[in-house]
Amino acid sequence: MRLRFSLQTNLMRSLLSIILGLLVVGIVLKLSGFRPFEAYQALFEGATGISSGKPVSISDRGFHIGTWDGHFSTYTFAQTLASITPLLFTGLAIALALRAGLFNIGAQGQMAVGATMAGLVGAIGTGGAINPVVGTLPRMIHIPLVLLASAIAGALWGGIAGYLKAKRGVHEVLSTIMLNYVAINLTNYLVTHSLKDPNPANMAVQTGLIAKSAWLHPLVINSNFTIGLALALLCAVGVAFLLAFTVLGYEIRAVGLGAGSARANGIAVPRVIIKTMAISGALAGLAGAIEVMGIHHRFLQGTAGDYGFDGIAVALLGGLNAGGITLSAVFFGALSNGANFMQLQTNVPKTIAVVIQAIIILFVGVRFQRKLQAPSKAPQDELESA
Amino acid sequence: MNVPANDPNLAIRMENITRHFPGVIANQNVHLQVTQGTFHALIGENGAGKSTLLNILYGRLRPDKGRIFLKGNEVTDSLKTPADAIRHRVGMVSQHYALIPALTVLENVMLGMEPTGALGILQRGKASERIQVLATQLQIAPLDLHIRAEKLSVAAQQKVEILKALYRNAEILLLDEPTATLAPQEAETLFGLLQTLVKRGTTILFVTHKLGEVMAYSQAVTVLRAGKNAGDFATAQTDAHELLHSMIGSRGNLPLQPLNPNVEPESIHAFAGESWATPVSISKSPLLQVEGVTVRNARQSLLVRDACLDVARGEILGIAGVDGSGQKELAEAIVGLQKLSAGRLFLEGVDFTQTSVAQRKAQGISYIPEDRHHAGLILDFSVAENYLLGQHHEASWGGGAFIHPTLMEARATAMVRQYDVRISDLGPSIPARNLSGGNQQKIVVSRAMESHPRLLVACQPTRGLDVEAARFVYKTLRDARQQGLGILLFSLDLDEILELADRVAVMYNGQVVAVLPRSEATPERVGAWMTGAALAPTEEIP
After folding, report:
1. How far apart are CA B374 and CA B390, in angstroms?
2. Which residues of B touch A385 (CB under 8 A)?
3. CB contact (8 A) between residue B429 and residue A1
4. Given an 8 Å threshold on Cβ–Cβ distance, is B51 in contact with A383?
5. Is residue A109 part of a domain?
6. What are the pLDDT digits (tens) for B479-515?
7. What is the DSSP letter of B122?
8. Is A43 within 8 Å of A50 (Cβ atoms)?
9. Model-level ipTM above the cut of 0.95
10. Has residue A383 been placed in a domain?
C-alpha cells in the first residue's frame, strides 16, 4: 500500500516537473519570437508519428476521428522507439548505482567501451572484408556473444571505478569522469590505428563493418528500431527484480540508504559497491552494443553520443525505479526524436529539447535534493530527544 | 499561580503552548513559569515534549499557538529564530554541541559576534580579553583559547558552549540534558559552574532524565507527560518518588527502582524447567578473551591500547568510562568493525581475529550498537526490512538466495508482537523512521537476541530511552545472562553498569585500567578510575 502510494506521488511529481518544464520553455519560445503551440504540435507529431492531414508517404496510414483527418507514420514512431532504447539502458545503469548511493557519471565511457567491444567481437567471421559479409558464426550464437562481450567490457570499466571507491576510497564521481576521458580517447585511438576501417576509401574514424550475423535488423523498414528495445525492457524487469527480490538487491538498497548500518550488520559494503558498479557498467555497455549492432553496424567515433549523461536525467525523472525509468526513457526518447521534426517544421532549433530536459531536471532536482538530504527536520528526530 | 503575565520577576512565562508535528502533538497547552535567577528543572519521559518546548523558547520552532513572555515582555511574535532568542538574551546548550571542530575556542565563542575595529578588521585581542574575564568569573580560567574545538573533551566542549552563550550576554540559559555524556565528577563540576551562574543572577532551565540531579540542584521542577503539563513542584517540597510518579503517570505504581532484579521475580522463575535454568554460575573457561588489543586511527594515534578482558558465559561485564575513552573502538574491534593493529580475540578458545563482521555474526557474536540510527537501523527501510538486516541470508527470516517479502513481513510481525514493538496499525511495512526511539531500539535489541548469539556486545543500550523502553532492555539483558550468554555492556551511565554488571571494567584514555568484582565497584572507586584520579599522580588528567 505504501509502495503504491509512493509510486503515485513520484509519478505526480515527475509529471508536474514535465508540465512545468514545457511551460517555462514555451514562455522562452514565445519571448524568442517563435510560436510555442505550433512548435509543441510539431514536437508531438515528430514524437508519436500522429499528425493531421492526408498521408504523405507510403508508410503512413490515414485515419479519421469524426471529421478530423489524420495519419500515423510508423517510421516516425519506430524512430522514437529507437531513441528510447539507449536511454533506457543508461537510465537503468545510473539508477541502479544511485540506489547504492553511487553517482555513476561514467555511463558514457562504459557505453563507449561496450560499443568498441561490439565492433570488435561483431567483426568475428568477416575476414577483414570491406563490404558487408554474412560471417561464419550462426546468428543465434554471434548476437548473444557480442552482447555478452559488450556487457563484460562495460562491467569491467564500471568495476574499475567501483574497485577504486571500495578499496582506495576514490570518489566515484571523480574516477568515472576521468575514466570517461580514458574510454573515449582509448577507443578513438583504437579505431584510428589497429581497429581502423580496412576500406581505404573510408577516412572516417571508425572500425570496419561487423558481420551480418551480428546485425540487429530494423523491425520497421529503414528505421533504427530493433529488438534491442525488447532487451532494454527485459533489463528493466531484471533491475526491478534484482532490487526487490534478491539478496544483492537488498544489500544494494541497504548500502544506499545506510552504509554504516549495513556494514555493522555484516554486509560487505566494498563488495556490494564493486558489484553494483559492474552491473551498472554492464547495462551501459549493452547500450553501446545495441547502437553498433542495430544502427551503425560498426563502431565509429561518437557512437556513445550523450546517452551517458542523458541517462542521468532519465534516472532522476524516473524516480530511480525501473517502471518510472521506463516511462521517463519513453518521454525523453520521444522528446529527442520529436525535436528533429520540430526543427524541420518550425525552425525552432532542436537543441530546445535539451533545454526542456534541463529545466525538467531542475524541477525534479528540487525534490530529489530534499530526498537525499537526511530529513533532519523530521518530527521523530525532533521529538526523540524531547 | 495567579501571577500577572507581565510580572518582571518571571524570567520565562509560556502560556498555552501548542505545537503539532505530522501525526504527533508534541506540546498541548503547555504552561511554564520560571522565576528570575532560579535553577529550574524540566523533566519527563522521552517524547514528553521537553526538547520541543526548549526549541520553541530558543526560536528554533514556532508554536502553533500560545504566548511567550520573557521578563514580563511579550515576545511571541518577535521570537522567530535563534538570532531573535539571542537578542532577547536567551542562550542554549543543545544535546549535540554546535562547535565547529576546525575552529579554535576563541573563534567558536566569538563566531557571529566578532568585535571589529575600523575597516571591519577583526579584533581578536578584545574578544579574548572578554572571554578570559567571563572564564574568571565562572572559575574556569585559565582557558586555552587557541586550542581547536575538536581536541577538547566533551565536558570541555560543553563549557565552551556555556561560555559562548554568556559571551552573547545570555541571562536565560537553556540546557538540554547537559549531563547525558558526562562522568559523575564532571557532572558535579558542571553543576558547580551552573550554581555560580545562578548566584550571579542567571536563570537556568535544564532538561534531564536524572531525578538525582533535580533533587540535588534545582529549585523548582516542571514535569511534562505526553506533551502536557503533569505538575509543578518546588524541589524542597517534593521527593524523587513523587516526581517519578508524576512523570510516568498511570504506570506510576511501579516501584521507585523498578530495575532492581529483586523486585522482578519473573526474570528468575519464568524459565524454571528449562535446561539452562540452573543458578547462574560464572564458568571458569571464558567465552570471550580479548588479548592485548590495540586500535589506531588513520593518523596512527592510539584509540585502544593493549586492552585485555575476558567474559564468561552467563556473565555481564560492564565497561565504564568517560565518553571517548576508547569504548566504542574496543566494541567495534570485537564485532569486526575496527582493524586491530595488535592483539588477538578468542571465542571459546577459537581465534577469530581475522574474521569478518558477517562471520562473527554467524559464530554468535551479536551487536547492539551505540548509534541506532547509523549502525543499527536503516531508517528509510521498513520495519520488516530492518529485521531482515544481517539475517538476509537466513531462510527463516525471509532471506536466502532470494528475498521473500511475505515471509519477511510475517517474521517481522511475529517479532513485533513478541517484543511489544509499537508500530501502529499499518504493520511492519512502515519505515523505521516513523517509530519512536524506544521502539526503534526494541527492534535492534530483539533482532540481536533472535540471531542465536553466544556473546552480546551492547553499547549504551538505553541511551536516550524512556523508563519503559530502558526496562525492556534491562530485562532482555538479564534474560540473556540467564540463558548463559556472555554480555559486554559498554555504558557511560555508571548507575546502569552498577545495576546490571557482575564485574566492572573501567576504560580510561584507551586503556582498560581496572577490572573490579561487583562487590568492590563502588561509584566512588569506579568514578576515580574513570577520571584517571586513581592513577599515579604523575599522570596528566585532562
Report:
1. 14
2. 46, 51, 95, 176-177, 464
3. yes
4. yes
5. yes
6. 999 999 999 999 988 888 999 999 999 998 889 999 9
7. B
8. no
9. no
10. no
